[in-house]
Design a protein that fits this description.
elongated; 76% helix; single chain; mainly alpha; 11 helices
């Protein structure tokens, strides 16, 4: 069985971008630096990714795949209770955002999601769909997509403000867990309300 040398180099470029964003952040993702780290000429990425957005989208797809794998593993570790599953999903989301700040920033760049390159938006939607589905089981009287959207925005805000240090200063807490608990209570209601 022969392997396609193009797919190998394409994967190498993405791997180099993933490593670069982990080491230096999203702002370091230039075509030239990715090519250098992949050991190819600075023009080589254009052969596989005609635009910079396409290469960045391919790298961000890896981030969404990684986050999805982590969420699936977290959900495998909790029972069938939808509230427990939302809590596990939310903890995993926040941990990913804080441990992978550069990738997280890249994954949610508006220009990448709006560009339609490599179906990045479609890659990001299943996780939100799962959150909305679980939210609907917890709050059947509510518009699950709206509640899930508000919760997701709250999680995103916690992640960003935590990274900046703002929440630690404002709240005096050294762990995001109490903030997560407050967000879940605010959006899902008390655990024993059903």
């Amino acid at each position: 069985m022969t392997t396609d040398p193009d797919s190998g180099l394409r994967a190498r470029l993405i791997d180099a971008g993933v490593a670069l964003v982990a080491a230096e952040g999203a702002q370091a993702l230039t075509l030239r630096e990715i090519a250098r780290r992949a050991g190819v000429s600075h023009g080589a990425p254009r052969r596989y990714f005609p635009t910079h957005l396409e290469l960045l989208s391919a790298i961000a797809r890896r981030g969404f795949a990684d986050l999805g794998d982590r969420v699936r593993a977290a959900l495998d570790g909790v029972g069938p209770d939808p509230r427990g599953q939302v809590a596990a999903l939310a903890r995993t989301y926040l941990a990913f955002a804080l441990d992978n700040a550069g990738m997280y920033e890249l994954m949610f760049r508006h220009d990448l999601l709006e560009s339609g390159q490599l179906g990045l938006r479609d890659t990001s939607l299943p996780l939100f769909g799962l959150l909305a589905e679980l939210t609907g089981l917890i709050r059947p009287e509510a518009d699950a997509r709206r509640v899930a959207g508000a919760l997701w925005a709250n999680l995103h805000g916690i992640a960003q403000l935590w990274r900046w240090g703002s929440l630690r200063l404002a709240t005096g807490v050294d762990d995001f867990a109490p903030l997560l608990d407050a967000a879940l209570l605010a959006h899902l209601g008390p655990a024993d309300a059903r």
